[in-house]
Amino acid sequence: MTLERKFWGPVGWGLLAGALLVPLAGVEHGAKIAVAVAIATAGWQLTHRGPAARAIARTGVILNRIRGRALTAVSENRRAWMLVGAVTLAAGPLALNNYVLDVLALAWLYVVLALGLQITVGFTGLLDLGYAAFYAMGAYGYALASTRFGVSFWAGLPLGALLAAACGVLLGVVTLRLRGDYLAIVTLGFIQIVHLVLNNWDRVTNGPNGILHIGRPQIGSLVFTDPIHFYYLMLGVAIVAILINTRVQSSRIGRAWMAIRDDEIAAEAMGVPTTRLKILAFASGAAWAGVAGVCFAGKYAFVSPESFTFFESIVILAMVVLGGMSSIPGVVVGAVVIVVVPELLRGVQDYRMLAFGAALVFMMAARPEGLIRRGLPKRRPGAAAA
Amino acid sequence: MLRVEGLRVSYGAVEAVKGLDLDVGAGEIVALIGANGAGKSTTLMAISGATAVSGGYIRFRGTAIEGRPASEIVRLGIAHVPEGRRIFKRLTVLENLQVGAYTRRDRREVEASLEGMFGYFPALRDRRGQQGGTLSGGEQQMLAIGRALMANPTLLLLDEPSLGLAPLMVERIFDIIRSIHRSGTTMLLVEQNARTALGVADRAYVVETGRIVLHGPASALLDDPKVRTAYLGEVIA
Question: Is the residue at B138 inside a domain?
Fold first, then answer.
């Protein structure tokens, strides 16, 4: 590769990314991503061959080994480690300050979001770039239900999930015949539409000013206001999401989703109703986004369109990709990392999106299957017999 | 058991199958032989509901199945081993097999099918926790057949089971196909490898450009001069 190409490659990709993303994600985010793309491209050109590439691959191997050791350590003493984890998660917050608790509560919220998107993208292989639209449905759904009809937070949760799932069905039906790139483009359009509607339908959404004074969650006389309340609330919701998704993944439907991802035609030939299951995947993923949206609205007591953008979709997608498309622990780690790392990088405020982009590219090079690969299911005793 | 009449299938403006007729009787192995692009695979796909039918009739045990969704057709007892195996690469062997049984709800029956299937393919039992994509070509073919058997079919559609396999493996696969047949499964077999196909089949049809041009008992086709020159590569003086 000539030096000239080495120079123009990154500049070209950066400009292209900027041209595409500035109108979509706004000048600020768009420019940041464009620079990140340029740096990433340069990094890629420098590293995808030669000693740097070997170093990256080696890091990947080491990461894998660490993970292997950790897993063995955990599985050898499963109960004890789970107890340690549970105690840390439950009692830890008492020793943490409000800022840390806030970040962690946000991390659990994103765990829920990422787990939802994982159903659509990771399990079923449908690249949905409009996922934040469902998040908006949950948030605005509850915001309106709460401010206009006084619906409580707890009633809002299923309501938001249902509303988002209904939108998921709608998007699923509309995009049924689309695959791959085409599906990605239409879903991208979907989040743009939702964002524009939220911004402009003043009478209902109050436009860019957003909706204020949304009811907070309440148990008896305890109104959730402190970060620690939301830490526990979000942790609870995240744990429920992890448990449900783990069950779903190893169920008949979960297998059928993954079969569709691996080979849709073969799945169809095996009698898997692919159309229905793809719509179901959109709806199930969307339901979690709806739940997360209600929690978001309940936490901040305020929603506005700027929280629900294409960029938001991309961040959630990055969590799924980074963590490992079909591994549930992977996606949990991915979500926590993507929420926490930028916070740790606050010291380099202006460059943190750059560092973040570079980290993502590094991950893609070192471990394209994500941080954690899907652990293969245990052999069932019934099938092992004889 | 299966009767296809005047079947037509089009891909856009191109008609791949142009009025094809065939019959499969209960307990038979019927082969469909022909060159690349003759419409053999398309015919199988139409029967299993994996592709849309633009004309004609398909009757399976008295029920009209043309245009029905694949899931219904599998439930009626037709399972398809698609060309090129098309196993689910990132699912384990066991999960692949479980997807094959997707339409069946009775767990105990599925477990019984699994045991029966492992009887034909003991290698799959040893590899059941492995990802499908890590299997060798021959093992993937076994998995594709095993997966179809998990639907407990009365009619098995086999599309090019010899494709890309070493001769020894082809022999093994066909031995297994024979023993599956002996246990009472009717088969419709598509093959380019005409000699092998005619070796196992009771009857055969020769397909050319979307139509049947010749049919009869497999042994008679093996002796037919046209078949011998066109499909068996023999030079007849």
Answer: no
Position B165, amino acid: L
What pLDDT digit, counting tens, does each position of A66-112 carry? Answer: 777 777 777 777 788 888 888 888 888 888 899 999 999 999 999 99
Q: Which residues lie across from B224 on neighbouring strands?
A: none
CATH of the domain at A117: 1.10.3470
The answer to whether the predicted template modeling score (pTM) of the entire model surpasses 0.80 is: yes
Domain of A222 in residue numbering reads as 96-348
- Taking CB atoms and an 8 Å cutoff, what residues of chain B touch A264? none
pLDDT at B7 over 50: yes
Contact A271 B102 (CB under 8 A): yes
Is the pLDDT at B119 greater than 60, yes or no? yes
Could you report the predicted ipTM of this complex, rounded to two decimals? 0.91
Q: Is residue A41's pLDDT more than 90?
A: no
Q: Given CB atoms, is A176 within the 8 Å cutoff of chain B? A: no
Please check whether residue B187 lies inside any domain of the structure.
Answer: yes
Predicted confidence band of residue A47 (pLDDT cuts 50, 70, 90) = low
Q: Taking CB atoms and an 8 Å limit, are A271 and B115 in contact across chains?
A: no
In a domain, B145, yes or no: no
Residues 178-207 of B with CB under 8 A from A: none
- Nearest Cα of chain A lies from the Cα of B36 at a distance, in angstroms, of 20
